[in-house]
Design goal:
By secondary structure, the protein is of the alpha/beta class. The chain is 36% helix and 26% strand. It has a six-stranded mixed β-sheet, with helices on both faces. It has a four-stranded antiparallel β-sheet with strand order 2-1-4-5, with helices on one face. The N and C termini lie far apart (35 Å).
């Protein structure tokens, strides 16, 4: 289980996160929903180690990773797909995946990793030898998720998984995320679109101004008029 307990983050004298607590279990899909600037990405960056929280704890299967460097967090099973994807533009898709497997110590398992990736995203086979610079937005997003799978994570953080995707592609990515869950991976997505989040997640946290203001099932969120008004900016 991934646990975030009472997390506070302060940057340049500004409180970004205030008492964030979330739980993610393996084989479960959790969504953190909020408007732009609410604190979704900052939560993810704190979990992966880009930001150092001022208070609180982050645990993976009861191992406290709060003060560990990012590469050690990765080895403890945390995968991260940033909003901007960060594909290496002059490496091929295969080289992007191979590099992630190498850096995480999983290069000897590359054949098995590729089998998993191509089962979830068979489309990648068509552009495996193409450099990242020449991939479309949807292809880059597929590759970014695939590259994170190469570290064999226990938990996968996907920031704005569906942003900029056409409706038909969104349905394709929802299917892929459910297939990733079947690999015994816990998934946490950060999502601005509440309706998309309720289609894919089993549990939802709503974040507003750095605080969790709702925790519950998708149908409970949709029925909560007060929280829905906040998400719509009313």
């Amino acid at each position: 289980m991934l646990k975030v307990e009472n997390l506070y983050l302060r940057i340049a004298e500004t409180d970004i996160l205030r008492g964030i607590s979330i739980n993610s279990e393996e084989e479960k899909i959790v969504a953190i929903v909020g408007r732009n600037g609410a604190g979704k990405s900052s939560t993810f960056k704190s979990i992966i180690g880009i930001y150092k929280p001022s208070r609180g704890r982050i645990l993976v299967n009861d191992t406290d990773i709060t003060n560990m460097p990012t590469h050690i967090r990765v080895k403890n099973g945390i995968g991260y797909v940033p909003e901007d994807m960060r594909i290496f533009p002059w490496l091929t898709a295969e080289e992007n995946i191979r590099l992630a497997a190498y850096l995480s110590g999983n290069l000897s398992k590359l054949d098995d990793i590729l089998d998993i990736i191509l089962t979830i995203f068979p489309e990648i086979k068509q552009f495996m030898n193409r450099e990242g610079y020449y991939l479309s937005g949807g292809e880059k997003k597929m590759l970014s998720i695939a590259r994170s799978l190469a570290i064999l994570p226990k938990h996968l953080l996907i920031d704005e998984a569906f942003e900029g995707l056409a409706p038909i592609v969104i349905e394709r990515f929802i299917k892929a995320i459910n297939m990733i869950k079947e690999q015994h991976i816990g998934i946490v997505i950060a999502e601005s679109n509440v309706l998309i989040a309720t289609k894919v997640a089993e549990k939802i946290y709503v974040i507003e101004r750095g605080e969790i203001i709702f925790e519950g099932a998708p149908n409970e969120l949709l029925e909560n008029r007060e929280v829905m008004k906040i998400l719509r900016g009313e």
